[in-house]
Protein backbone atom coordinates (compact mmCIF):
# COMPACT_ATOMS: atom_id res chain seq x y z
CA UNK A 1 0.00 0.00 0.00
CA UNK A 2 3.00 2.28 0.46
CA UNK A 3 4.15 2.07 -3.14
CA UNK A 4 1.36 4.19 -4.57
CA UNK A 5 2.65 7.18 -6.48
CA UNK A 6 1.01 10.52 -6.89
CA UNK A 7 2.08 13.69 -8.63
CA UNK A 8 -0.10 16.79 -8.38
CA UNK A 9 1.26 20.33 -8.08
CA UNK A 10 1.18 22.27 -4.85
CA UNK A 11 0.05 25.22 -6.95
CA UNK A 12 -3.24 23.44 -7.58
CA UNK A 13 -3.77 23.11 -3.84
CA UNK A 14 -3.13 26.82 -3.42
CA UNK A 15 -5.64 27.80 -6.08
CA UNK A 16 -8.33 25.45 -4.77
CA UNK A 17 -7.62 25.89 -1.06
CA UNK A 18 -7.19 29.65 -0.79
CA UNK A 19 -9.52 30.82 -3.56
CA UNK A 20 -12.33 28.27 -3.41
CA UNK A 21 -14.91 30.11 -5.41
CA UNK A 22 -18.61 30.53 -5.14
CA UNK A 23 -19.11 28.07 -7.99
CA UNK A 24 -18.36 25.10 -5.72
CA UNK A 25 -20.25 25.99 -2.54
CA UNK A 26 -23.70 27.49 -2.41
CA UNK A 27 -25.07 29.94 0.11
CA UNK A 28 -26.85 28.44 3.09
CA UNK A 29 -30.59 28.69 2.69
CA UNK A 30 -31.22 28.19 6.40
CA UNK A 31 -31.90 31.58 8.04
CA UNK A 32 -30.88 30.46 11.54
CA UNK A 33 -27.61 31.80 12.91
CA UNK A 34 -26.90 29.37 15.73
CA UNK A 35 -23.19 28.64 15.40
CA UNK A 36 -21.18 26.10 17.40
CA UNK A 37 -19.93 27.38 20.75
CA UNK A 38 -16.25 26.77 20.05
CA UNK A 39 -14.08 27.43 23.11
CA UNK A 40 -10.66 27.29 21.42
CA UNK A 41 -9.16 30.70 20.69
CA UNK A 42 -9.03 30.05 16.93
CA UNK A 43 -10.84 27.59 14.69
CA UNK A 44 -11.53 26.86 11.03
CA UNK A 45 -13.89 24.36 9.41
CA UNK A 46 -13.21 23.84 5.70
CA UNK A 47 -14.72 21.59 3.06
CA UNK A 48 -12.00 19.04 2.30
CA UNK A 49 -12.69 18.88 -1.43
CA UNK A 50 -13.01 22.59 -2.20
CA UNK A 51 -11.29 24.31 0.72
CA UNK A 52 -14.39 26.48 1.24
CA UNK A 53 -14.90 27.81 4.78
CA UNK A 54 -18.06 26.83 6.67
CA UNK A 55 -17.06 28.29 10.02
CA UNK A 56 -14.25 30.36 11.42
CA UNK A 57 -13.33 31.83 14.77
CA UNK A 58 -10.34 34.15 14.40
CA UNK A 59 -9.23 31.75 11.63
CA UNK A 60 -6.45 34.04 10.38
CA UNK A 61 -4.98 34.96 13.77
CA UNK A 62 -1.30 33.98 13.98
CA UNK A 63 -0.65 31.64 16.90
CA UNK A 64 1.89 29.10 18.12
CA UNK A 65 1.02 25.63 16.81
CA UNK A 66 3.04 23.22 19.01
CA UNK A 67 3.30 19.64 17.69
CA UNK A 68 0.83 20.13 14.87
CA UNK A 69 4.12 21.32 13.30
CA UNK A 70 4.83 17.65 12.58
CA UNK A 71 2.34 17.66 9.72
CA UNK A 72 4.90 19.78 7.87
CA UNK A 73 7.78 17.49 8.83
CA UNK A 74 5.85 14.62 7.25
CA UNK A 75 5.11 16.62 4.09
CA UNK A 76 8.76 17.73 3.84
CA UNK A 77 10.33 14.28 4.13
CA UNK A 78 7.79 12.74 1.78
CA UNK A 79 8.52 15.46 -0.74
CA UNK A 80 12.22 14.61 -0.45
CA UNK A 81 11.51 10.96 -1.30
CA UNK A 82 11.87 9.33 2.12
CA UNK A 83 12.58 5.59 1.81
CA UNK A 84 9.77 4.20 3.93
CA UNK A 85 11.42 0.80 4.28
CA UNK A 86 14.82 2.24 5.19
CA UNK A 87 16.18 2.12 8.74
CA UNK A 88 17.36 5.11 10.81
CA UNK A 89 19.21 5.19 14.12
CA UNK A 90 18.21 7.52 16.94
CA UNK A 91 21.25 9.69 17.69
CA UNK A 92 22.35 12.40 20.12
CA UNK A 93 21.15 14.97 17.57
CA UNK A 94 17.59 13.67 17.99
CA UNK A 95 17.94 13.64 21.78
CA UNK A 96 19.01 17.31 21.80
CA UNK A 97 16.24 18.35 19.41
CA UNK A 98 13.62 16.73 21.68
CA UNK A 99 14.94 18.26 24.92
CA UNK A 100 12.17 19.84 26.95
CA UNK A 101 9.42 17.79 25.33
CA UNK A 102 7.30 14.96 26.64
CA UNK A 103 8.67 11.48 27.34
CA UNK A 104 10.11 9.68 24.33
CA UNK A 105 10.04 5.96 23.64
CA UNK A 106 12.63 6.00 20.86
CA UNK A 107 15.79 5.00 22.70
CA UNK A 108 19.19 6.42 21.84
CA UNK A 109 21.18 3.99 19.69
CA UNK A 110 18.16 1.99 18.56
CA UNK A 111 17.28 1.78 14.84
CA UNK A 112 13.76 1.96 13.47
CA UNK A 113 12.12 1.64 10.09
CA UNK A 114 11.29 5.05 8.63
CA UNK A 115 7.59 4.28 8.20
CA UNK A 116 7.52 3.45 11.92
CA UNK A 117 9.22 6.74 12.76
CA UNK A 118 6.40 8.44 10.85
CA UNK A 119 3.94 6.50 13.01
CA UNK A 120 5.75 7.49 16.21
CA UNK A 121 5.72 11.13 15.13
CA UNK A 122 2.18 11.47 13.78
CA UNK A 123 0.31 9.07 16.07
CA UNK A 124 2.03 9.81 19.39
CA UNK A 125 4.06 12.98 18.66
CA UNK A 126 7.45 11.55 19.64
CA UNK A 127 9.86 14.49 19.51
CA UNK A 128 12.92 12.46 18.52
CA UNK A 129 11.32 11.38 15.26
CA UNK A 130 11.40 14.65 13.23
CA UNK A 131 15.17 15.10 13.05
CA UNK A 132 15.66 11.35 12.54
CA UNK A 133 13.24 11.42 9.61
CA UNK A 134 14.90 14.53 8.24
CA UNK A 135 18.28 12.78 8.33
CA UNK A 136 16.77 9.73 6.64
CA UNK A 137 15.63 12.02 3.82
CA UNK A 138 19.08 13.63 3.51
CA UNK A 139 18.50 16.74 5.62
CA UNK A 140 20.11 17.99 8.82
CA UNK A 141 17.93 19.93 11.26
CA UNK A 142 18.44 23.31 9.57
CA UNK A 143 17.77 21.87 6.12
CA UNK A 144 14.62 20.17 7.41
CA UNK A 145 13.30 23.45 8.83
CA UNK A 146 14.10 25.18 5.53
CA UNK A 147 12.20 22.47 3.65
CA UNK A 148 9.21 22.83 5.98
CA UNK A 149 9.14 26.56 5.23
CA UNK A 150 9.42 25.75 1.52
CA UNK A 151 6.39 23.45 1.76
CA UNK A 152 4.42 26.23 3.47
CA UNK A 153 5.37 28.69 0.74
CA UNK A 154 4.40 26.30 -2.05
CA UNK A 155 1.05 25.73 -0.37
CA UNK A 156 0.56 29.49 -0.29
CA UNK A 157 0.45 29.58 3.53
CA UNK A 158 1.73 33.12 4.04
CA UNK A 159 1.41 33.27 7.83
CA UNK A 160 3.08 29.92 8.58
CA UNK A 161 6.70 30.08 9.81
CA UNK A 162 9.06 27.47 11.24
CA UNK A 163 12.17 27.83 13.39
CA UNK A 164 12.04 24.41 15.04
CA UNK A 165 11.45 20.88 13.77
CA UNK A 166 9.31 19.56 16.63
CA UNK A 167 7.10 22.50 17.60
CA UNK A 168 8.53 22.74 21.10
CA UNK A 169 10.02 26.18 20.41
CA UNK A 170 8.58 28.77 18.05
CA UNK A 171 6.58 27.95 14.90
CA UNK A 172 3.42 29.86 14.08
CA UNK A 173 0.47 29.55 11.73
CA UNK A 174 -3.29 30.11 11.70
CA UNK A 175 -6.26 27.80 12.07
CA UNK A 176 -7.14 28.24 8.40
CA UNK A 177 -3.61 27.52 7.17
CA UNK A 178 -3.24 24.48 9.42
CA UNK A 179 -6.51 23.07 8.08
CA UNK A 180 -5.18 23.55 4.53
CA UNK A 181 -1.89 21.88 5.49
CA UNK A 182 -3.75 18.86 6.84
CA UNK A 183 -5.77 18.78 3.63
CA UNK A 184 -2.50 18.43 1.72
CA UNK A 185 -1.26 15.70 4.08
CA UNK A 186 -4.49 13.71 3.78
CA UNK A 187 -4.02 13.70 0.00
CA UNK A 188 -0.89 11.58 0.54
CA UNK A 189 -2.10 7.97 0.93
CA UNK A 190 0.83 7.02 3.18
CA UNK A 191 0.31 9.92 5.58
CA UNK A 192 -3.46 9.44 5.52
CA UNK A 193 -3.06 5.79 6.49
CA UNK A 194 -0.65 6.61 9.33
CA UNK A 195 -2.84 9.38 10.73
CA UNK A 196 -5.95 7.20 10.64
CA UNK A 197 -4.30 4.32 12.55
CA UNK A 198 -5.60 3.86 16.08
CA UNK A 199 -2.89 1.52 17.39
CA UNK A 200 0.37 0.08 16.09
CA UNK A 201 3.32 -1.83 17.55
CA UNK A 202 6.68 -0.44 16.42
CA UNK A 203 9.76 -2.66 16.71
CA UNK A 204 13.41 -1.67 16.60
CA UNK A 205 15.76 -3.46 14.23
CA UNK A 206 17.43 -5.27 17.13
CA UNK A 207 14.09 -6.41 18.48
CA UNK A 208 14.99 -4.90 21.84
CA UNK A 209 12.31 -2.21 21.62
CA UNK A 210 8.66 -3.13 21.11
CA UNK A 211 6.58 0.00 21.42
CA UNK A 212 2.78 0.03 21.39
CA UNK A 213 1.69 3.41 20.06
CA UNK A 214 -1.88 4.65 20.36
CA UNK A 215 -3.21 7.69 18.53
CA UNK A 216 -3.69 10.90 20.53
CA UNK A 217 -6.64 11.76 18.24
CA UNK A 218 -9.51 11.06 20.65
CA UNK A 219 -12.37 11.36 18.13
CA UNK A 220 -10.55 8.76 16.02
CA UNK A 221 -10.44 6.41 19.02
CA UNK A 222 -14.06 7.12 19.95
CA UNK A 223 -15.33 6.21 16.49
CA UNK A 224 -18.50 8.30 16.70
CA UNK A 225 -17.58 9.85 13.36
CA UNK A 226 -15.34 8.62 10.56
CA UNK A 227 -12.10 10.44 11.36
CA UNK A 228 -9.68 10.65 8.45
CA UNK A 229 -6.64 11.50 10.56
CA UNK A 230 -5.01 14.50 12.16
CA UNK A 231 -2.58 15.76 14.78
CA UNK A 232 -2.67 17.09 18.33
CA UNK A 233 -0.24 19.43 20.05
CA UNK A 234 0.45 21.30 23.27
CA UNK A 235 2.91 23.82 24.66
CA UNK A 236 2.31 26.59 27.19
CA UNK A 237 2.66 29.15 24.41
CA UNK A 238 0.28 27.36 22.04
CA UNK A 239 -2.27 25.93 24.44
CA UNK A 240 -3.99 22.72 23.35
CA UNK A 241 -4.28 22.29 19.58
CA UNK A 242 -6.11 19.78 17.40
CA UNK A 243 -6.19 19.48 13.61
CA UNK A 244 -8.29 16.73 12.09
CA UNK A 245 -10.17 15.53 9.04
CA UNK A 246 -13.57 13.89 9.42
CA UNK A 247 -16.54 12.66 7.46
CA UNK A 248 -19.71 14.11 8.93
CA UNK A 249 -23.18 13.74 7.41
CA UNK A 250 -21.66 12.06 4.34
CA UNK A 251 -19.30 14.95 3.60
CA UNK A 252 -15.62 15.45 4.37
CA UNK A 253 -14.08 18.35 6.28
CA UNK A 254 -10.74 19.53 7.65
CA UNK A 255 -11.07 21.17 11.04
CA UNK A 256 -8.48 23.09 13.09
CA UNK A 257 -8.60 24.24 16.71
CA UNK A 258 -5.76 26.32 18.18
CA UNK A 259 -5.30 27.72 21.67
CA UNK A 260 -7.72 25.66 23.76
CA UNK A 261 -7.25 26.11 27.50
CA UNK A 262 -7.86 22.48 28.41
CA UNK A 263 -6.79 19.10 27.06
CA UNK A 264 -10.37 17.95 26.48
CA UNK A 265 -11.69 21.34 25.31
CA UNK A 266 -10.36 20.87 21.76
CA UNK A 267 -12.06 17.47 21.49
CA UNK A 268 -15.29 18.88 22.93
CA UNK A 269 -15.03 21.62 20.29
CA UNK A 270 -14.84 18.92 17.63
CA UNK A 271 -17.99 17.29 19.04
CA UNK A 272 -19.79 20.64 19.03
CA UNK A 273 -18.81 21.34 15.42
CA UNK A 274 -19.74 17.81 14.31
CA UNK A 275 -23.17 18.07 15.98
CA UNK A 276 -23.69 21.46 14.32
CA UNK A 277 -22.90 20.01 10.89
CA UNK A 278 -25.18 17.05 11.60
CA UNK A 279 -27.92 19.59 12.32
CA UNK A 280 -27.45 21.14 8.88
CA UNK A 281 -24.76 23.72 9.80
CA UNK A 282 -27.24 26.52 10.57
CA UNK A 283 -25.71 29.94 10.02
CA UNK A 284 -22.69 28.57 8.14
CA UNK A 285 -20.95 30.97 5.77
CA UNK A 286 -21.11 28.45 2.93
CA UNK A 287 -22.63 25.04 2.53
CA UNK A 288 -20.85 22.49 0.32
CA UNK A 289 -22.76 20.80 -2.42
CA UNK A 290 -23.61 17.20 -1.65
CA UNK A 291 -22.89 16.11 -5.20
CA UNK A 292 -19.60 15.95 -7.06
CA UNK A 293 -17.43 14.77 -4.19
CA UNK A 294 -13.90 13.81 -5.12
CA UNK A 295 -10.56 13.28 -3.42
CA UNK A 296 -8.42 16.39 -2.86
CA UNK A 297 -5.21 16.76 -4.84
CA UNK A 298 -2.02 15.30 -3.42
CA UNK A 299 1.23 17.02 -2.56
CA UNK A 300 3.92 16.69 -5.21
CA UNK A 301 6.57 14.17 -4.17
CA UNK A 302 10.04 14.05 -5.60
CA UNK A 303 11.55 10.92 -7.11
CA UNK A 304 12.40 8.13 -4.70
CA UNK A 305 10.71 6.88 -1.60
CA UNK A 306 10.13 3.35 -2.85
CA UNK A 307 8.96 0.81 -0.33
CA UNK A 308 7.88 -2.78 -0.17
CA UNK A 309 4.60 -4.13 1.07
CA UNK A 310 4.80 -5.49 4.59
In short:
This protein has 310 residues and is of the alpha+beta class.
Describe the protein.
By secondary structure, the protein is α+β, with helices and mostly antiparallel strands. The protein has one domain: 3-Layer(aba) Sandwich (Beta-lactamase). 31% of the residues lie in helices and 21% in strands. It is built from ten helices and 13 strands. The chain has a five-stranded antiparallel sheet, with helices on both faces. The chain has a two-stranded antiparallel sheet with strand order 1-13. It starts with 9 loop residues before the first helix and ends in a 22-residue tail after the last strand.
CATH architecture: 3-Layer(aba) Sandwich
Specify the biggest β-sheet.
Answer: 5 strands, antiparallel
Mean pLDDT: 86
Strand content: 15-25%
Full CATH superfamily name? DD-peptidase/beta-lactamase superfamily
Structural class: alpha+beta
Provide the domain count.
Answer: 1
Overall shape: globular
What's the number of helices?
10
List keywords for this structure.
about 300 residues, alpha+beta, Beta-lactamase, five-stranded antiparallel β-sheet, two-stranded antiparallel ribbon, about 30% helix, disordered N terminus, disordered C terminus
Amino acid sequence: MHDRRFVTSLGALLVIGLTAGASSPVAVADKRTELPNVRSESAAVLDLRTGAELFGKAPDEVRAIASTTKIFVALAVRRKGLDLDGWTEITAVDVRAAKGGSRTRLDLGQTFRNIDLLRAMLMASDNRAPTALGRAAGMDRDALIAEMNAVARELGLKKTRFTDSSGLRGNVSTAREMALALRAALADPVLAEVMSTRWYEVRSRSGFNKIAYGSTNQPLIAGTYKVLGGKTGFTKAAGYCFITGAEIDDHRYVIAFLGADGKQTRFADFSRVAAWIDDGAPGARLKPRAEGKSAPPAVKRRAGGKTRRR
